[in-house]
Design brief:
It is a single chain. With 218 residues, the chain is an alpha/beta fold. It contains seven helices and ten strands. It has two domains: 159 residues, 3-Layer(aba) Sandwich (Rossmann fold), CATH 3.40.50; 45 residues, no CATH class. It has a six-stranded mixed sheet with strand order 2-1-3-4-6-7, covered by helices on one side. Strands 5-8 form a two-stranded parallel ribbon. The chain is elongated, with a radius of gyration of 19 Å. 28% of the residues are buried.
């Protein structure tokens, strides 16, 4: 099988590299949006195109011409949309899934081709490593067994939107009303490479908070 891989996030590129180094299939890897060229893709004649962690809308003619798959770190049909890791963590979720699905013209609504459990505990780097491991296994399974498509239950769908850098502020209202676990989660979900959590100080500056821990006051 000829597999084209398009991505830019480190964890997605790590998945592609691990697949290419451990498979008998032929891989073509585009490592950025700038590097992605349709004419190169067409010349490659892929049987499957992976867009893991991709953030841009794909043209309809591409979806009609190829089977294109996306990896989404949520238990689809729940948490469709942007910033799924952050939105789940801030909602207090500790267990999720890595979902592989067929890309369609509807947001994160295509048929599922695989899901695997994902813990949202620990640091973002811990979570990214789990996503990477799950993505490798799920993709290896479908390359061995073929595409097993299961429709999502659209009646159960929930949506989240991509977070903005301004939402990384820990506000005075949050400090006054939110429990320690909420604030801890907000800090850890906004570790690099995301816009870090911060507080605005009296002199008009941003004080960034990149790590935190909770201690019980006796």
């Amino acid at each position: 099988m000829r597999v084209a891989c398009v991505g830019y996030r480190d964890w997605a590129l790590n998945i592609y590299d691990r697949l290419a180094s451990s498979s008998d299939h032929t891989f073509l890897i585009f490592r950025s949006k700038v590097q992605f060229r349709l004419e190169v893709l067409f010349d490659f004649k892929p049987d499957l195109v992976l867009f893991y962690g991709w953030s841009w809308i794909l043209p309809a003619f591409l979806l009609e011409r190829y089977t294109c798959l996306m990896l989404h770190p949520s238990p689809l049909p729940l948490y469709r949309g942007g910033s799924p890791i952050q939105n789940q963590i801030i909602m207090g979720e500790i267990s999720s899934k890595v979902s592989l699905f067929v890309i369609t013209d509807e947001l994160d609504a295509g048929d599922l081709v695989g899901q695997q459990d994902l813990s949202l505990l620990g640091t973002l780097s811990d979570i990214f490593k789990r996503i990477e491991d799950a993505g490798v296994k799920l993709t290896q399974d479908l390359l061995k067994q073929g595409l097993q498509r299961v429709s999502q239950d659209h009646s159960q769908a929930t949506y989240c939107r991509r977070r903005t850098p301004e939402e990384s502020e820990i506000t005075s209202e949050e400090l006054a009303t939110k429990p320690a676990e909420y604030l801890f989660n907000k800090v850890r979900m906004l570790a690099d490479p995301y816009p870090n959590a911060y507080i605005l100080t009296a002199d008009g500056k941003k004080l960034f908070i990149t790590a935190a821990y909770i201690e019980q006051v006796v």
